[in-house]
Amino acid sequence: MARLCLALCAGLLLVRTTAAPAQSAAPPRPLGFAGFETGQSLSALAENTRTFDGILGCKVSRIDTSLRECRATLHDSTGRALDLWLSAADSNASITTIEAQLSTSELLRWQGGLLARYGRARERSRGAQRSLQWIRGNTMMRLTWRPEAGGVAASVSLIDGGRLDAWGRRFEARLPARPAADSVRRDTVPAPTH
User: Fold this and answer.
1) How high is the pLDDT of residue 30?
2) What sign does the dihedral 26-31-33-38 (CA atoms) show?
3) Which residues contact 163 (CB under 8 A, 6 or more apart)?
4) Among candidates 82, 193, 106, 102, which has minimal Cα distance to 147?
5) Does residue 144 contact residue 130 with C-beta atoms inside 8 Å?
6) How crowded is the C-beta side of 85, counted as CA atoms within 13 Å?
7) Looking at CB atoms within 10 Å, which of 47, 83, 115, 194 has the fewest?
8) What's the CA gap between 72 and 135, in Å, rounded?
9) Burial (CB count <10 Å: 0-12, 13-18, 19+), residue 51
10) What distance in Å separates the CA atoms of residue 52 and residue 15, rounded to the nearest whole number?
11) What is the pairing mode between strands 81-89 and 139-148?
12) Contact (CB, 8 A) for 81 and 100
């Protein structure tokens, strides 16, 4: 009996050590809309813009040459104009926004597509404006809409919080050190002593 137990334990140990390593879960898909994704490179953004018959034009910041502000007018398969604007740090998008005037049925298609791809969303309302928001790690996507004459003004914003935070830390580190604050304001007069 002891030999059987030893053989069984040795067999289990052998199976455990020779088994294939467990497959790690695939990384979550980046948040995105219409082929635009959080943190996407400017070259990929420019290529995607061309698929919508648009040209991405960028300006370099005068304050920090690692920053770009870019814009384009896109046209979807129905010919509707979509406005694209983005801010990029280190040649990758930190904030991307796509905006369009939609009918109610087109808005429902945008909502349905995003809900099907990313699941439940956090819903918010502020007056007539409503939004759905998805958060994945340090990234966020928000679909915002409000009724306007003849339709709905809608936008999808993609935000790469990690990229924004990294740029902010680098920018702050380059600023000159601030002098220590005085404990007494210079514009105050000391109280009289009696």
Assistant:
1) 87
2) negative
3) 39, 89, 90, 92, 93, 94
4) 102
5) yes
6) 6
7) 194
8) 26
9) exposed
10) 54
11) unpaired
12) yes
**Alpha-carbon gap, residue 13 to 19, rounded angstroms:** 10
- Altogether, the residues listed in the chain come to a count of 194
Q: Is 112:106 a contact under the CB 8 Å cutoff?
A: no
Q: Find residue 99's DSSP bridge partners.
A: 83, 155
pLDDT at residue 94, as a whole number: 96
pTM summary value: 0.75
Token pair 């994945």 in the structure block, residue: 136
State yes or no: pLDDT of 126 exceeds 50. yes
Written as six digits, the tokens of 31 are 């948040």
Q: Are strands 139-148 and 151-160 parallel, antiparallel or unpaired?
A: antiparallel
Is residue 113 within 8 A of residue 34, CB to CB? The reply is no
